[in-house]
Write a structure and sequence with these properties.
The protein has 463 residues and is of the alpha/beta class. Helix 2 crosses helix 5, helix 6 packs parallel to helix 8 and helix 12 crosses helix 14. It has two domains: 271 residues, Aconitase, domain 3 (2-Layer Sandwich), CATH 3.30.499.10; 161 residues, Aconitase, domain 3 (2-Layer Sandwich), CATH 3.30.499.10. Keywords: 4Fe-4S, Amino-acid biosynthesis, Branched-chain amino acid biosynthesis, Iron, Iron-sulfur, Leucine biosynthesis, Lyase, Metal-binding.
């Protein structure tokens, strides 16, 4: 029987099956953080159940953490309590924790791949919807709820119904200044935010094969914004080269053995998918969202749709935009480059390359938040911090930051923020905040101009 990449990974992890029902799936790696794990630990304690395989769990502090003065006691009481509880739970159950200040601390979906924890052919879960990020390695990775976190603690398994399969193929050459973020925003704008419901998506074609691992992670990160359970990209030499030599990657002959297996994780020719979509790379331009879900996106040089739609009208009322309007020239006071979508070294290289020799606009509040301590180290080693400093920017310390308004980094009521994060829901970045999702390049250009500009049109110096 011809199998898809998803089938191959799923089927090798099935512990048991109920006829015409769900299956018990073994979980290779369980990632946890300070926000969604305490309730699950409490459930185990209440029922006197031990953590079954603590060595398969990795913990980090990221969601509700400050991004300034991390060496000082955390001021926010809720955050402080969550971090203390995480430390206590990890100590009690012998779980590896990368707390604030640790050299490996960072956003859970940034630090796990860069440490070589995430590998092809794995099943990987976390109490966070954007766990789909790890699918970029050819892993089945998805977010789970608190009760499921407790299930994995107790059994290292989950009772699940196998999702349907979708393949999205993008072939051809991308236009100038089109980044992976633009590719996924374009796909979601074309298919909609519910198009992937009940499906796992495989991204295939020239565009993804030619992407870096960091770009692939951006794409798979946002597969959840299509309503999918997760996204995957078949592992290849790009994947193997990325993993090789990382702290927890296989070493020596073990690595060679793993690669031989990983090379089998391609969808067989003729394998069937429940849905398939095809796109031409040449149709994709630098993107930006105008509404209150990630599917409300347009090319920078397009205008907001004028169709009669209640959801569109409600969204535009919240955003204070008009049908048929262009976003070019729209004043913006906040820019955020960060989140588990776009806070890796490549994202900061793109931004630094654009801002080098320029100055941030006076009206701009720019939050540049690396995804991990290792990214901070790379930024400093490559001198990118000096470029940002000269341009008037300030780097913050790692954390989820302004992605989700759970910490101190909130966008004020009524303000626009061009953000490299993954969601533009009402109030996502702060009560009353207005989020416009974009690539690190578009965000950097906005920071320099103080307004939204077309990155394909040179900025003319004002006289």
């Amino acid at each position: 029987m011809k199998k898809t990449l998803f089938d191959k990974v799923w089927d090798t992890h099935v512990v048991d099956s109920i006829p015409d029902g769900p299956q018990i799936l073994y979980i290779d790696k369980h990632l946890i953080h300070e926000v969604t794990s305490p309730q699950a630990f409490n459930e185990l304690k209440k029922r006197n159940i031990p953590v079954f395989r603590p060595q398969q769990i990795v913990a980090t502090a990221d969601h509700n953490t400050p991004t300034e003065n991390q060496h000082l006691p955390v001021k926010d009481e809720l955050s402080r309590n969550q971090l203390q509880q995480l430390q206590q739970n990890c100590d009690e159950h012998n779980i590896e924790l990368y707390a604030l200040g640790h050299q490996y601390n960072g956003i859970v979906h940034v630090m796990a791949p860069e440490l070589g924890i995430t590998q092809p052919g794995m099943t990987l879960v976390c109490g966070d919807s954007h766990t789909s990020t790890h699918g970029a390695f050819g892993a089945i990775a998805f977010g789970i709820g608190t009760s499921q976190v407790a299930q994995v603690f107790a059994s290292q398994s989950l009772l699940l119904t196998k999702p349907k399969k979708m393949r999205i193929t993008v072939n051809g050459s991308l236009q100038k200044n089109v980044l992976p973020k633009d590719v996924i925003l374009y796909i979601i704008s074309q298919l909609g935010t519910d198009s992937g419901t009940e499906h796992f998506i495989e991204f295939a074609g020239d565009v993804f094969e030619n992407m870096s691992m960091e770009g692939r992670m951006t794409v798979c990160n946002m597969s959840i914004e299509m309503g999918a359970r997760g996204g995957m990209i078949a592992p290849d030499e790009t994947t193997f080269n990325y993993i090789k030599g990382r702290k927890f990657a296989p070493k020596g002959t073990d690595f060679d053995t793993k690669v031989a297996y990983w090379k089998t994780l391609q969808s067989d020719a003729g394998a069937e998918f429940d849905k398939e979509y095809f796109f031409d790379a040449a149709d994709i331009s630098p993107m930006i969202t105008f509404g209150t879900n990630p599917g409300m996106g347009i090319s920078l040089n397009e205008h907001i749709p004028s169709k009669n739609d209640a959801n569109l009208e409600k969204s535009l009322q919240y955003m204070n935009f008009e049908k048929g309007a262009s976003l070019i020239g729209q004043k913006v006071n906040y820019v955020f480059i960060g989140s588990c979508t776009n806070s890796r070294i490549e994202d900061f290289r793109v931004a630094a390359n654009y801002v080098k020799g320029k100055q941030k606009a006076p009206n701009i509040n720019a939050w540049l938040v690396p995804g991990s301590q290792l990214v901070v180290k790379q930024i400093e080693e490559e001198g990118l911090d000096k470029i940002f400093e000269a341009a008037g920017f300030k780097l913050r310390q790692p954390g989820c930051s302004a992605c989700l308004a759970m910490n101190d980094d909130k966008i004020p009521d009524g303000e626009y923020c061009v953000s490299t994060s993954n969601r533009n829901f009402e109030g996502r970045q702060g009560q009353g905040s207005r989020t416009l999702l974009a690539s690190p390049l578009v965000a950097a250009a906005t920071a320099i101009a103080g307004k939204i500009v077309d990155v394909n049109v040179p900025i003319l110096e004002e006289v």
